[in-house]
Amino acid sequence: MGAAIGRTRLPTVIVLGLDNSGKTTVVNWLREAAGHDSKVVVPSVGVSVQKLQGKSVRMAVCDVSGL
């Protein structure tokens, strides 16, 4: 318990939606907005987790495949 003092948790965004609803497109847009390279991310199978860091924001984005 003492080890957690002073450590901040990384905010996590979970992107959920139906098949072909643009979830991965939103994650790619967030990557580009955060200043990361615009590598092509193929549609996720299962769960894809990416850690993003912008000028004032740091977060993990979980892209869950279609429901």
Count of strand segments: 3
How many structural domains in the coordinates? 1
Characterize the main sheet.
Answer: 3 strands, mixed
* Share in β-strands: 25-35%
* Shape estimate: globular
Distance between the termini: 37 Å
For the biggest β-sheet, the strand order reads 1-3-2
| Multimeric organization | single chain
Outline the low-pLDDT stretches.
Answer: none
Tell me, rounded to a whole number, the average pLDDT: 81
**Class computed from helices, strands and strand pairing:** alpha+beta
Q: Level of helix content?
A: 10-25%
SSE order, as H and E? Answer: EHEE
Q: What would you report as the Rg, rounded to the nearest angstrom?
A: 14 Å
Tally of helical runs: 1
Description:
The chain is α+β, with helices and mostly antiparallel strands. It has one domain. Helices cover 16% and strands 27% of the residues. The chain is built from 1 helix and 3 strands, in the order E-H-E-E. A 3-stranded mixed sheet has the order 1-3-2, covered by helices on one side. A hairpin with a 4-residue loop joins strand 2 and strand 3. The longest helix is centred in the middle third of the chain and has 11 residues.
